[in-house]
Amino acid sequence: METRKKSGHTDANVILKWAEGQKIETVFERASRIKPCPIGKAGACCKSCHIGPCRLIGKGDENDIIGVCGASLPTVVARNFARTIASGTAAHSDHARDMALTLLAVAKGETKDFQITDIKKLYRVASILDIDFEGRPVNEVALDVANKFIEDFQRQTGEMNYIKRAPKKTQERWKKWGITPRNVDREIAETLHRTTMGVDHEPDNILLHGLRTALADGWGGCMISTDITDILFGTPTPIKTEASFGIFKEDEVNLVVHGHEPTLSEKIVDVVSEPEIIEYAKSKGAKGINLGGMCCTANEVLMRHGIPTAGGFTNQELGLLTGLVDAIIVDVQCIMPVLVDISKQFHTKIITTSEKGKMKGAIHIQYDEHKAKDVARQIVKLACDNFQNRTKKGSHVTAKYPMIGGFSHEYIEYMQGGKWRASFRPLNDAIIAGRIRGVVGLAGCDSPRVQSTGMHKYIATELIKNDVLVLSTGCGSASCGTAGYLTPEMALENAGPGLREVCEAIGIPPILHLGACVDNSRILTILSAMVDEGGLSDEIGGMPGVGIAPEWMSEKAIAIGCYFVASGVPVIFGGESPVKASPEVTKILTEIWIERFRGAFHFEEDPQKIVDIALNYIDNAREGLKLKKYEPGKFATERKLLDMAARREIEKGAGRAHVGL
After folding, report:
1. What are the chain's domains?
2. CA-to-CA distance for 431 and 636, rounded, in angstroms?
3. Confidence (pLDDT) at 507
4. pLDDT digits (tens, 9 = 90+) for 303-317
């Protein structure tokens, strides 16, 4: 594989070229050298017991291809897929459990370093949970909210609290097919039980429970985590920052927060601006302290504080190869253990902070929410001490790109009408009128198995050219950000005329950065709000919306894809299908699921075909809703789309009329 083809990110290729000259192996070389198992990647390897592993290969009827115990190929493929859902759900939802316990500790006054930051969001959540908040102390309300969320990890019967946030008709579909989740832990445990050797052998039944587990993630774990993070640290609003490897500074201590959990990184943000810590850095020869991010911990602090990001999953080694990173602080998920090996060739310290995620050879400093700032100061000082050990070795890339992040559900609602007229009506009207063709959630990881970040960039560009509004999260956002795609100017240069008009009127980019991978839940609440607003579908299914993860690699991505499918959103993932070995299972994911839930799960390697499938779903949804056929540059009505200034004039006029002026 040639260097120019390894990444769609120009700066990444510069570093990779330097690494080749130094004979430093990265994930890209390993991906080329280590070929995936053709049996396992198609879902046909069974490891459920020690009779095997059984490789289910052969010709003829797939139900006649069986393992030693007699489990058929479709059964094995379905079990493997369901276990992937369970693992992905466990990762996101264990994150959510920790957030709920942190909120509980704050409410009880057990930690002095955290407090309720967004009281309005707390009250909004309390209202959804039927918790009275009027006239009550804030921490008392927070205690009830925390306990209510913790129920979603314990309840044995009934349904999870946030199910009520879905449109009524969507909920009815879940009940009809028996996939309404009860609690996160029960659905995960039941998936593992069902897929244990000798239990559930009916592929459709296995996969139905897989969807139930995924819904516990989307309408449970992910949504809980997003809301608690907003309550504790603030609901994001648009903020300008920078992206790519040029965020690192040669004359300052460079710290990188990497992983997925926001609690410690929030305290590091606080600590690096403390005067005594800055003086400590200067005493080590640095001019100051520069904080940057990687992966979704980066997205958490970017969305709320404008901390710059060096990129997503495949950029983590490359950031270290700049030679400028004094310490990488990691928590959980998507962290390559090879960072420790590469760090030995540089001066960088790798610091693990979670008891759930340790690496041989790394420094471990255990995070404790009860003394979060003390832990943060210890870590920052260690990085400052290491500044003196920095050498000139490395690929010192200086390029960086401006970007806008911070688009929450609440802000998207606000930006369409201001404080008093906030709603999703303008977005619905723009879709009805044909100015916006549809909406795509562009998410997922970036992968070295393809031209990393290149798939995201290509698909994002093609979608906005076709007047599709893009909502991005996780490494999808990082891919767009490090390419300079997350700016309002992107709309002027690349968006179709209808989408460009909407973006100009509101003053937004055509690709909205919604946050970390757990924040895919924001897309669910946005779709639900669009349904409630009226004028389109009466359920999420049938909306002109699609989910795309072109470079997925994590089990979490499969869980996310499945909770979107079960909610009624067609989903397209890049690369070869992990259920390819079984036509029966493939049919369940596509034809059967779309009949039952109005969402289907597709896998496609060609990026242009991904775009074509997505646009076809959007256009079919428009036709099903009896909207006028989309025509590029031609809108269904000639109504003028009002900008914020015009809306204020209308409000003033309405006010004058009301008082008789």
Report:
1. 3-55 (no CATH), 62-233 (1.20.1270.30), 245-387 (3.40.50.2030), 413-644 (3.40.50.2030)
2. 10
3. 87
4. 999 999 999 999 999
